[in-house]
């Protein structure tokens, strides 16, 4: 579902950033994340979302009955997110959240790590926050061959469309932090369904399992 201009205006008037969630081009990664977590974690499991400003996943998990949700972003408008009575929103750098080590069963990051962040820093913080056996689940802009985004900025940050080689590097870095793929790895892609800022690409989804072997 996608919202119209009047709905966005009404949402701002009510102090809610989004009345409807989902993007018709890529809602599958939200669905994949929600389905994965429902299959692996009970509803009382503590979960934190990285890059939560306008992120669909905290609201989706809240509607699914998850009761221990946190959401982190540097943008102070994250504090105006939906379900504020049930989701703990925090303004912070998600490479250094300030939360206690081992305090979450899952960390999520939907279309967040491609925007100007040190991937190793994000992985290190996710691994620190996860309790043993926890999961880091997310998605990112992706195309098997390298898409040049030099000089392009989104949210006033650098932008990366991850290539197959860069995703392999991400998985290698994850392993150094004790995070292993939770299933088979496949770097193949279908059609470049997204056209944005003159680039064509798709999205990659991942689920990493904290093994404790850092």
Topology:
Elements lengths: L4 H9 L13 H14 L6 E4 L6 H7 L5 E5 L13 E5 L12 E7 L8 H11 E13 L10 E2 L2 E2 L5 H13 L2 E3 L12 E3 L2 E12 L4
Parallel strand pairs: 1-2, 1-4, 2-3, 4-5
Antiparallel strand pairs: 5-10, 6-7, 8-10, 9-10
* CATH top level assignment: Alpha Beta
Number of strands: 10
**Helical content class:** 25-40%
Per CATH, which architecture?
3-Layer(aba) Sandwich
Biggest pleated-sheet summary: 8 strands, mixed
End-to-end Cα distance:
40 Å
* Uncertain ranges: 1-21
- Inertia-based shape: globular
H/E series, N to C?
Answer: HHEHEEEHEEEHEEE
Percentage of residues in strands = 25-35%
> Measured on Cα atoms, how large is the radius of gyration?
17 Å
Structural class: alpha/beta
């Amino acid at each position: 579902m996608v919202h119209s201009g009047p709905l966005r205006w009404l949402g701002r008037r009510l102090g809610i950033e989004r009345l409807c969630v989902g993007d018709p081009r890529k809602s599958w990664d939200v669905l994949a994340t929600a389905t994965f977590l429902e299959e692996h974690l009970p509803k009382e499991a503590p979960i934190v979302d990285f890059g939560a400003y306008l992120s669909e996943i905290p609201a989706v998990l809240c509607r699914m009955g998850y009761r221990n949700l946190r959401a982190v972003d540097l943008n102070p408008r994250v504090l105006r997110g939906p379900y504020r009575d049930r989701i703990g929103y925090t303004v912070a750098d998600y490479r250094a959240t300030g939360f206690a080590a081992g305090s979450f069963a899952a960390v999520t990051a939907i279309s967040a790590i491609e925007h100007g962040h040190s991937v190793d820093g994000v992985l290190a913080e996710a691994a620190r926050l996860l309790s043993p056996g926890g999961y880091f689940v997310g998605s990112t802009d992706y195309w098997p061959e390298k898409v040049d985004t030099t000089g392009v900025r989104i949210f006033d940050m650098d932008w990366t469309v991850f290539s197959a080689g860069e995703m392999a590097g991400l998985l290698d870095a994850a392993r150094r932090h004790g995070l292993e793929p939770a299933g088979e790895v496949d770097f193949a892609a279908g059609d470049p369904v997204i056209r944005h800022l003159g680039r064509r690409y798709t999205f990659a989804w991942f689920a990493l399992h904290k093994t404790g072997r850092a």
